[in-house]
Amino acid sequence: CFGFPLSIFFIVINEFCERFSYYGMKAVLILYFKYFLHWEDNFATAIYHTFVALCYLTPILGAIIADSWLGKFKTIVYLSIVYTIGQAVLSVGSVNDLTDHNRDGSPDNVALHIALSMIGLILIALGTGGIKPCVSAFGGDQFEDDQEKQRSTFFSLFYLSINAGSLLSTIVTPNLRATECGIHTKQRCYPLAFGVPAILMAVALVVFIIGSKMYKKVKPQGNIMLQVSKCVGFAIKNRFRHRSKEFPKREHWLDWASEKYDKQLIAQTKMVLKVLFLYIPLPMFWALFDQQGSRWTLQATSMNGDFGILVQPDQMQIVNPILIVIMVPVVDSLVYPLIKKCKINFTPLKKMTVGMFLASMAFVAAALVQVQIDKTYPVFPAAGHTQVRLINLGVAPATVQFQPQLQSVDVAPNEATGYMTFETSKLQSLHITSLSLNKTESLKLLEGQRYTLAFKWGLQHIRSNLTLDNVTSKPEEGKSLVRFINNYPFPVNVTMDDMAFGVLSPLSVSNYSAFQNKKGSFIIRASMPLGTCTVLSKKFGFGSAYTISVDDCTNYRLNVTYYEDIAPNTVHMAWQIPQYFLLTCGEVVFSVTGLEFSYSQAPSNMKSVLQAGWLLTVAVGNIIVLIVAGASTLNKQWAEYVLFAALLLVVCVIFAIMASFYTYVDPNEIEAQFSEEKKKDKKDQDDSEKEAEADSRM
């Protein structure tokens, strides 16, 4: 088909579906841990990075199975089945109604959901990691030796399918998660967000199997990684056996393997180990890079996602693949030629150093954004303290004294104070004075809680109502809280859209109700003996809490007053774009260059060893994050960002020093020398055999 083997189209479609499945599931994973399993941020981050680390450790296992035992085709099929089962198990584990027997909206057996989720993730890690080194190589096997141009085009299509799958899934699955579904109670739709990737993985498997008869299947030929490992192991063991001074030293410690392995394998292993040594500092880059899906997504949950359309926190990850598509051609066709024109020797290792520096600066930018976010967080009372706010619902000004003589506050009509903090044991009562009327309110307050005192001047007395707010944290997932207070002299039944707040007696306060913000307004409806009045609500900010006073009605239009209890998220998600830009620029000059450098310095038959080493650096980077997340005693998230930035900066300096001592080699030249030597040895051997044959005839 257009000069291509028809089989490769099945492989490209398979890769698109598999990448959609993986990135779609991964995009919503951290929020699933936080909001469904109710894990705190550090633990959720640790488990997330454990999973990612496992996904990058298993490719080594997959490569060994494919090259030494099953072959690429069978390995892809068997592990894809494992992968599909894992996605299905994870989707089932996220079904709230599975154990919600009392139908209260919360799972009754959280342990079962956790167990199913962990089993699903382990199977997914085995599947996605195991097939990772096989699919692209299997695609390359479909071409003949004279189809180099078509093979190159295939790899371009292959990586395009990866980016397309990643991009599309990062848009789709967060939107699926944001919808509400359920049999008994409506919850965030994690089953759908995980179910669609599971279906796509099943499609990927079916498509791959359909093309089975068209594939060229190369038999397993042994795994070079095992040969290298055995060579290194024998050299170390042999050197240990001959450690006494009576044995002469050898030029390189790997030369101790020469008794068992040929010179070419030893020389190639030396080249590989030389590159692998440079890999030692690289995990620190990945430790920062992979936090896009964990810490940065959690950061976005505390921000304003209104871009005209509502952007979910987990959708901000899409900035990275979009910028990759833009930045790769810009850097290759504009930045690098410009640097070359300035006669700057911008070697691959220097590019990688710059990439690490840019990633470090990305986390400095993330820390600056976090500082601004922290300023918007409400301060809740600590142990031994209580907070009280005042709302004057009357038409006359009032003065409130906190007894015994702690503080005196003036409150204007239809105004509210902020939350004032007091030592719980010292605050005994408060005295309200409005015009000629007085009232003393005795207080019995709980530690660590917030209270609202609503009061109103009347003709004969002051009426008041002290209410426990029962809110100890800012609303999460971009939701808002709202409650109503009845400022009428008779009972009122209040609703907001389909949320019922019940019948409120005069000056009584409803409980808070959480709701998801929408683009339009809500309809507030108050039913009373005189009739029903309505009004459209104001636009509530993300993460806000409001008390709404139902005041009066004019021509069936309800008059209400809004009192802000918790300020909305005022830092916009757009402020994350600079940190994504810096990190993506770092990725372009680090990751792309790193792979090119590795391949240019590796012998032709050793590229899979370096690929395994490269993937191993990603796994170790994620292990670093889970260690820091588990052991960190830093209370402020911005401080952790600064810590990671500082660590990468130090590693960047170390890598620059290591790189300055590296000598670039040409593996093809070295292999050509060995090839010439082999030809010469064979010629000498043939000549010797001819001479021996001639002598025997004589």
TrEMBL record:
Record carries keyword Transit peptide: no
Name by which UniProt lists this protein: Solute carrier family 15 member 1
Protein's UniProt keywords contain Transmembrane helix: yes
Cellular localization per UniProt: Apical cell membrane; Membrane
Catalytic activity reported: L-alanyl-L-leucyl-L-alanine(out) + H(+)(out) = L-alanyl-L-leucyl-L-alanine(in) + H(+)(in); glycyl-L-leucine(out) + H(+)(out) = glycyl-L-leucine(in) + H(+)(in); L-alanyl-L-proline(out) + H(+)(out) = L-alanyl-L-proline(in) + H(+)(in); L-methionyl-L-phenylalanyl-L-methionine(out) + H(+)(out) = L-methionyl-L-phenylalanyl-L-methionine(in) + H(+)(in)
GO annotation terms (biological process): protein transport
Gene Ontology molecular-function annotations: oligopeptide transmembrane transporter activity; symporter activity
Keyword list, A-Z: Cell membrane, Glycoprotein, Membrane, Peptide transport, Protein transport, Symport, Transmembrane, Transmembrane helix, Transport
Lineage top rank: taxon: Eukaryota
Family as reported in the entry's similarity comment: Belongs to the major facilitator superfamily. Proton-dependent oligopeptide transporter (POT/PTR) (TC 2.A.17) family.
